[in-house]
Sequence to fold (143 residues):
Amino acid sequence: MFTLEGLLLVSVLVNLPFMVQPIQRAFAAVPHSLREAAWVSGLSTWQTFWRIELPLAWPGLLAGMALTVAHTLGEFGVVLMVGGNIEGETRTLSVSLYDKVQGMDLQSAHVMALALVGVSLLALTLVLAFDRVGQRGRALQER
Fold:
């Protein structure tokens, strides 16, 4: 509690659902015929995973990470409950934004809110870009 390590652990657990869906979609999109071809060629299940499935699913992994990081940066409740508001240790942008609004420093609050919107837009752009890369890769594999 009230340490960076504790805050990171809880944030990962709370935000894990944002990572699961893109990863599930990425691995589900890998054609089963590729797995079977790898097994027939003599690759083990782990070799198939590392050499075939993971390289094809990496855009989904990156998309999940982008969503999770963006949500974690904007998370407020968990950060305040587990991490507190310790300057230089556990204060995040969302908690700092809250402090600025409470202190009526609205100009700083607007800048921080704009930064959070920018991070969100960047995360969405990355998710869409990784999804397109994954779709292109799957389309090439189907040919």
